[in-house]
């Protein structure tokens, strides 16, 4: 059974940093595109960042220059380093994995596996 488990969320003041982790089990994703999405209360789930099997990355404009996605294939884990956090970054953050493609994607429907999410709250 494939599982994606996020961790590292929490409460932080504006301007602070957090690092989210997404640990995969049940299969390896070293040859698959991975992504992070987020969902704030009352809003749709939105794209944050994505990484390909060759470590190419792509970011939403709202986080570009502040967030960094990376992967450690030996640990079957993807990370999201979040710096200079703003109150508008408050959301539940979800990790996602593509089942058959090594390319990155900002589209939700291209992902086949999802984690349960981790809450990030940024206070002003």
Strand content: over 45%
The helix tally amounts to: 0
- The dominant shape is globular
H and E string: EEEEEEEEEEE
Instruction: State the helicity in percent bands.
Output: under 10%
Task: Using the CA coordinates, give the radius of gyration.
Answer: 13 Å
Structure, explained:
- There is one protein chain.
- The strands form two sheets. Strands 2, 4, 5, 6, 9, 10 and 11 form a seven-stranded mixed beta sheet that branches.
- By secondary structure, the chain is mainly beta.
- Strand 5 and strand 6 form a beta hairpin.
- It has no helices and eleven strands.
- The chain is globular and about 40 Å long.
- The protein starts with a strand and ends with a strand.
- The mean pLDDT is 97.
Layout of helices and strands:
Elements: E1 3-7, E2 10-13, E3 18-25, E4 34-39, E5 46-51, E6 57-59, E7 67-72, E8 77-82, E9 91-97, E10 113-114, E11 118-123
Parallel strand pairs: 2-11
Antiparallel strand pairs: 1-3, 3-8, 4-5, 4-9, 5-6, 7-8, 9-10, 9-11
What are the defining features of this structure?
single chain; mainly beta; 7-stranded mixed beta sheet; 11 strands; globular
């Amino acid at each position: 059974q494939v599982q994606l488990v996020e961790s590292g969320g929490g409460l932080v003041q504006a301007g602070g940093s957090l690092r989210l982790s997404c640990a995969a089990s049940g299969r390896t994703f070293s040859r698959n595109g991975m992504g992070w999405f987020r969902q704030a209360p009352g809003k749709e789930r939105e794209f944050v960042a994505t990484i390909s099997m060759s470590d190419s990355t792509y970011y939403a404009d709202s986080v570009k220059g502040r967030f960094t996605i990376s992967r450690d294939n030996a640990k079957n884990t993807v990370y999201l380093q979040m710096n200079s956090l703003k109150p508008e970054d408050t959301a539940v953050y979800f990790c996602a994995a593509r089942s058959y493609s090594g390319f990155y994607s900002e589209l939700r429907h291209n992902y086949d596996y999802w984690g349960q999410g981790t809450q990030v709250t940024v206070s002003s």
